[in-house]
Amino acid sequence: MKFYTSTNEIPEEMLKGIDLTYPQLTYLPETGILYDNTYNEKTVPIISGGGSGHEPAHVGYVGSGMLAAAVTGPLFIPPKSKNILKAIRQVNSGKGVFVIIKNFEADLKEFNEAIKEARNEGIDVRYIVSHDDISVNAYNFHKRHRGVAGTILLHKILGAFAKEGGSIDEIEQLALSLSPEIYTLGVALAPVHFPHQKTSFVLAEDEVSFGIGIHGEPGYRVEKFEDSERIAVELVNKLKAEINWQKKKSK
Amino acid sequence: MKFYTSTNEIPEEMLKGIDLTYPQLTYLPETGILYDNTYNEKTVPIISGGGSGHEPAHVGYVGSGMLAAAVTGPLFIPPKSKNILKAIRQVNSGKGVFVIIKNFEADLKEFNEAIKEARNEGIDVRYIVSHDDISVNAYNFHKRHRGVAGTILLHKILGAFAKEGGSIDEIEQLALSLSPEIYTLGVALAPVHFPHQKTSFVLAEDEVSFGIGIHGEPGYRVEKFEDSERIAVELVNKLKAEINWQKKKSK
């Protein structure tokens, strides 16, 4: 929470630190691109990315059977399309490149621009947008469908599938069938602490907030913390409702 | 920090949860013993343990190439000798059992009792006491030599060595040469939060404490947090002094 050298340099220093720590990971300075230098070029590379501040996503999932590269922006700000394009070029070996994008407007804008450019260069880029969040807006009860924790399941499942030899077509098909079946709901024990800024919402030591977002977006309900079981019940009930639990069970 | 069902049940619930989550790990209820049910009986099992509240130590290091079993007591209280003895029996397959003990009086008492009993039963038990901590007592500058974070290096190095076929004699020799060469120094950004109790020391949001212990023991110096580099300099300088850095370098 307070363990850094200077606020502006957090993401760049973190990425350089990861490069130093792990021989198999290489960081391209000033680009936000971290890639697996042992990546098997016979398989289809999967990449993902987004703002930093969500660690271990996405850099923590670069490795064998997961992402071939991650591209990271400043704190809570998506990477620029030019860096996403660089990442696509970096991992491309002619078998196509698969991109996992979290469903946020700013992310979609940058990733779509990069994908368009890469396709213009003749790279076969496919993508999936993760939108696993079933939290609702507290004012109008609209579902938010943000791409949040479930994105990591896509990294792992698609990454393992690619490692086993899945083609770009097969990976795209699997992604399209998987993504709508992933549902998550977040709960916060504390608000997000952004260095030198006030938190985006206030939560007492004995309170929890359901349905919060990964950038400190407030949830749909604040409650006194009773016990972890109460929280599990709320989360599981909401997830069950979403997937029509009873109906599926009786099949 | 506050995510639990009831304070008394935290360790037991945690261990049952780990059993549910990982097919290869089995928890023996009411004993604090978690073991690797895929453990290769042709190799020498290594076990460790201590109070709970230090997770991921020790239960997080049960697995292939690490510990065959961990035995856990209540929060910050070492396991009873009878449960340590049960753990030794559980993993014993006739090749000897190696035990890693953290250097705390209460831990040594329970582990030594269990080892004595196990030897009476004819089990060839060897052990090492980890004492990596180079923090000093702020009042008399005596070294504390507690067994802390460096214990994990013993789990990993000895575990990997055992997996490769090291005998109980060889493991003991390696442990005896390794343990005195491991030095660590802790720094805290926050005090330990014990459920429903006051913290053992107070640390402001912008302060850090050097040389703290793993049970909330105060460190030897509190400083305003400047940046992470300042902390790294303090830690590295102290470690260098301990190992007589210059002299070794010039060899």
UniProtKB/TrEMBL annotation, chains A, B:
<feature type="domain" description="DhaK">
    <location>
        <begin position="6"/>
        <end position="251"/>
    </location>
</feature>
<dbReference type="InterPro" id="IPR004006">
    <property type="entry name" value="DhaK_dom"/>
</dbReference>
<dbReference type="Pfam" id="PF02733">
    <property type="entry name" value="Dak1"/>
</dbReference>
<dbReference type="GO" id="GO:0005829">
    <property type="term" value="C:cytosol"/>
</dbReference>
<dbReference type="InterPro" id="IPR050861">
    <property type="entry name" value="Dihydroxyacetone_Kinase"/>
</dbReference>
<dbReference type="GO" id="GO:0019563">
    <property type="term" value="P:glycerol catabolic process"/>
</dbReference>
<dbReference type="GO" id="GO:0004371">
    <property type="term" value="F:glycerone kinase activity"/>
</dbReference>
<protein>
    <recommendedName>
        <fullName>DhaK domain-containing protein</fullName>
    </recommendedName>
</protein>
